[in-house]
């Protein structure tokens, strides 16, 4: 097959011509393409402060990191399924925020317990019962209303927790929390706005939104139920109950929705997500998350 | 990046019955610079437009401030008005500082 | 406005001459300028197809998002899929400046009346496909798209500038992933070669049929919508990719591939054009599932979009009539 040699033009080297388009009136300045990507841990001392129990700190970071990782995985499942293209972009941003938190927290867990396990060791090579996330984040996505209801509950509670944790004696956890406060504030605003739109939109959307809330509400209580590690290494989540419920109540009232009157989802032998006792939904989620990594032990990606 | 639909010949169709109305997005890249038009998006209300603009147009740290405005709220000049609008300023050379000859040895001017 | 419409209704010699002069002078046509109907129609078709490709293109890679084997790769892939949604949005917005509505274009996509790039009708079978798509498919896309940054239609050209900048990250992350896999285990290297074998020919076909079979090329080039012929771009892609393949240590599945000293380029074999024709006509491995997924998302989301409209209408009805107050 005979081909003409491509003519020599400014398109010949793609990156060169991209660089060229940076100058001139239609160039870089016009698009204000940002550059400043800050490392959230820049300048933060990663040495374990004296007086902190490394195992407790590690277990606590796993709890928070697993929450973020598992919810990120659920948000990722929305990709190519969102109700509008603008929401594709928005949901991916939420997922990226949570994934970023998860990576920092799992890394910290591996440092704090002295095992040196990496974020990937912890994400891909633990069994279901070793995951310490609350059950709220692992249930299947349901419809958009259920996912928004879950996000509203999680973002409200986690934002409040991160606010308290920004003063944690571990500088790494404090830095992750300080950054997370801003991210969760945005997640909460996003979830709040959609709760209002669905709750006070069409009769059908109001019905779906209420159903989503009713379904997710039994999982809320677990966010306020302290595991001993949380009491020793972090913030007593029971402290969050009152402000979080007040905040949620205000949103639901404005949306014309009813605060569900449902009992909490029962634990098993008094144990739930923080103890590694989960719903049936976590196993398949982790099987999918881990399948490629586990098929190639020792491989680098 | 793209022009407003108000800027197109079908501008009156902005906000059709089926979809969300079109908004134009302006980003201030950093303090000290003007907001610049960067593109458009669809949103059901102003707040949604602002959040979507944040998610879509500043995902690489492109800005410190955002404006959104409904495309159908923009009044634009038409190409046919180009001559009456913009030609008359073309010959007012006396408005430009280089019109005036100042001896080179006069300082600070 | 009235005069503008008259200028379009009647073939206005002056307007047409002005259009030709702007294009010939390498300046940009802007949305409210007069333009030939065929120019408008060509652009709408091309930009819509391009936008659809970005949106459908999220699916093959999205297929690996939940299974990405490291958290870093998961974050990169999610950011990439998100960029593709963003690029689709930029492009739909550019199309809308030509007087069409995004909802109409979406309808045409899910009813099969508008096409998207056939490359996305192939399945992604291993995680190496993610890297190969970044390297070959995004590499080919960049070859196609960089010249479009100088397209005569302003909104399309400006969208392309932004997209090309973002896309260069996509190609580089793909190549970096493949380099990592090639340094890895034997199984990982086999995955890469297998993926290259499956994606090479479809990537070459992304540039469209050969020039002799591409009747619209001449007109699009005269209008400065297109800058180079399909064969020129394909050649450029091959010349760019072969040394990258050598560096990577993979074999491109073309026995006819050899350096032509005389013309300073790589000779390569003829793609199976009958396969491209079949895929374009809906008989690729994934045509049905890709469109079906997009349709399902659009239809499942209808109640959500309607709720948002209803909510906005309620809030607007509550607002005091500020226009009257301002008018005083």
UniProtKB/TrEMBL annotation, chain A:
Region: Disordered, residue numbers: 1-29
InterPro entries referenced in this protein's UniProt entry, alphabetically: Aromatic_CoA_ox/epox, Ferritin-like, Ferritin-like_SF, PaaA_PaaC, PaaC
Any Pfam family the entry gives: PaaA_PaaC
A biological-process GO annotation: phenylacetate catabolic process
GO CC terms, sorted: cytosol
SUPFAM superfamilies: Ferritin-like
Name of the protein: Phenylacetate-CoA oxygenase
UniProtKB/TrEMBL annotation, chain B:
InterPro entries: PaaB, PaaB_sf
Pfam families noted in UniProt: PaaB
Protein name per UniProt: Phenylacetate-CoA oxygenase
UniProtKB/TrEMBL annotation, chain C:
GO CC list: cytosol
Coiled-coil features, chain-numbered ranges: none
InterPro entries with a match to the protein in the record: Aromatic_CoA_ox/epox (IPR052703), Ferritin-like (IPR012347), Ferritin-like_SF (IPR009078), PaaA (IPR011881), PaaA_PaaC (IPR007814)
Pfam families: PaaA_PaaC (PF05138)
GO biological process, one term: phenylacetate catabolic process
Domain of life: Bacteria
SUPFAM superfamilies linked to this entry: Ferritin-like (SSF47240)
Annotated Gene3D superfamilies: 1.20.1260.10
Record protein name field: 1,2-phenylacetyl-CoA epoxidase subunit PaaA
Species of origin: Streptomyces sp. Y1
